[in-house]
Amino acid sequence: KISEAVVRRLPVYLRYLQYLNESSIRTVSSQEMGQTLGINPAQIRKDLAYFGDFGRKGIGYEVPYLIEKIKQILKLDRTIQVALVGAGHLGIALSNYNRFTREKLSIVALFDQDPNKIGCKIGLLPIQPMSELNATVSRLDIQIGIITVPAPEAQRVADRLVAAGVRGILNFAPVKIKVPDEISLRTADLTTELQALAYYID
Amino acid sequence: KISEAVVRRLPVYLRYLQYLNESSIRTVSSQEMGQTLGINPAQIRKDLAYFGDFGRKGIGYEVPYLIEKIKQILKLDRTIQVALVGAGHLGIALSNYNRFTREKLSIVALFDQDPNKIGCKIGLLPIQPMSELNATVSRLDIQIGIITVPAPEAQRVADRLVAAGVRGILNFAPVKIKVPDEISLRTADLTTELQALAYYID
Ligand SMILES: NC(=O)c1ccc[n+]([C@@H]2O[C@H](COP(=O)([O-])OP(=O)(O)OC[C@H]3O[C@@H](n4cnc5c(N)ncnc54)[C@H](O)[C@@H]3O)[C@@H](O)[C@H]2O)c1
Ligand SMILES: NC(=O)c1ccc[n+]([C@@H]2O[C@H](COP(=O)([O-])OP(=O)(O)OC[C@H]3O[C@@H](n4cnc5c(N)ncnc54)[C@H](O)[C@@H]3O)[C@@H](O)[C@H]2O)c1
After folding, report:
1. Cβ-based neighbours of A156, under 8 Å, separated by 6 or more
2. A89 touches chain B (CB under 8 A)
3. What is the CATH classification number for the domain harbouring B51?
4. Which letter does DSSP use for residue A78 in this model?
5. Which of B73, B74, B193 has the CB atom closest to A186's CB atom?
6. Among all residues of chain B, which has the CA nearest to that of A200?
């Protein structure tokens, strides 16, 4: 398995490469990538060589090939099913965010505990009660759970998702949660984006 | 000015240090930080030395002191006023997200073009019409604009925010927008979090 630091960089490379591809740019050098992304070009070359891509002298890397390669590594060449728990403001925004679908990460089920929300449709998806979580996760082969409930509820919901059989959790609630070692856990925090921006506005 | 790559790491260090502090842990070594964050300890030591903190042999770094230091560098020791345009699902979730306030990044004004939303309150903040953007940005000394409108509207809203006088923009819409060179621009994209998680769930 490759290191966490490399895995964090791959989606960043992918986003940039897709942007180039959309602008019909088919080759790129590690220098150009490094300059745009603020990453050392030697680090980029090292990461890509790790996956067997050494670029070509004078030409650089082939953008479409790299995109496919990185998608395979990130397992984005097959669809990964995702369940979201907490159909509130953030949950609905994420559920409607088309970019997830384009990237083969598909939110296929929504859950909430509010009886006023259960049964309502968000796009094509109905909001389901928590009692249907286990059955739905099995039936739809859901691998990832997204937590968008208030902080005091996050650990309880994490326990429910783990019991239902997900293999990874993306937590948006501003609280540390605990999961078994074999479950992958990431915490999403948009404050870091704002903080980095705050540094630059002088 | 320090490099983009370092500035990106500082909020990550800060979040981790605050977690330690909340658990009453007052010292940390670069090894421990590096292991937890997936960052080379030598890189961490280099970043912190850049700001005059060299740690102490056998002890490591003082957590509360580092927190204050990084906050100063990121200018989080003073409040930065933020305006949000697009009071939809994502916008409301961000507006209610308490962690921003705790971090001295304060969303002080909300704007939308939907007449049904204008005048409604989100927490203590009324949703204002776009016609009040310029006057409000001046009056409240707003430095950052957050864009949470649909993709086709993002560039138009960016132009309005630049004209109103913000110095930085955080764009959530999945589209590349253009701003003048002197305006700082960051794009927030939660797909990278999901993609990195997707890699780990095997
Ligand atoms: N990470 C970030 O950058 C970020 C940004 C914004 C919001 N947030 C966090 O995301 C979370 C959601 O924010 P929001 O504004 O959408 O809140 P919200 O109140 O609009 O939505 C929360 C939803 O969760 C449901 N819920 C509560 N407990 C539940 C449970 N035990 N099981 C199932 N559903 C349950 C509620 O009925 C509600 O629909 C909060 O924790 C907030 O702090 C994080
Ligand atoms: N970056 C990410 O990870 C991420 C995640 C979720 C959503 N998004 C994006 O965030 C944006 C908002 O998503 P949402 O689900 O909250 O959408 P939404 O439709 O609920 O909200 C959009 C709001 O913008 C307002 N609006 C539209 N045009 C406007 C204009 N010209 N001036 C002022 N207000 C205007 C609308 O009236 C509405 O209230 C979308 O672009 C979506 O793709 C990004």
Report:
1. none
2. yes
3. 1.10.10.10
4. S
5. B193
6. B184
Contact A201 B190 (CB under 8 A): no
Taking residues A32-59, report their average pLDDT. 87
Count the Cβ atoms, other than its own, within 10 Å of residue A129.
14
Please name which ligand lies nearest the alpha carbon of B157: 2
Smallest CA–CA separation between B65 and chain A, in Å? 18
The CA B93 to ligand 1 mean position distance, Å, reads 8
Sequence-ordered strand ranges (E) for B69-189: 80-85, 105-112, 121-122, 125-129, 142-147, 168-171, 184-187
Distance CA A65, CA A6 (A): 19
Last residue of a domain, one of A43, A73, A103: A73
- Tens of pLDDT, residues B167-197: 999 999 999 999 999 999 999 988 888 888 8
Q: Are A198 and B88 in contact (CB < 8 Å)?
A: no
Contact between residue B98 and residue A174 where contact means Cβ atoms under 8 Å apart: yes
Q: Given B73, B95, B127, which residue is the final one in a domain? A: B73
**Is the minimum distance from the CB of B12 to ligand 1 under 6 angstroms?**
no
- For position A119, which CATH number holds? 3.40.50.720
Residue A200: what pLDDT? 82
- Residues in A touching B200 (Cβ below 8 Å): 7, 168, 184
pLDDT tens-digit series, residues B86-123: 999 999 999 999 777 666 788 999 999 999 999 999 99
pLDDT at A102: 67
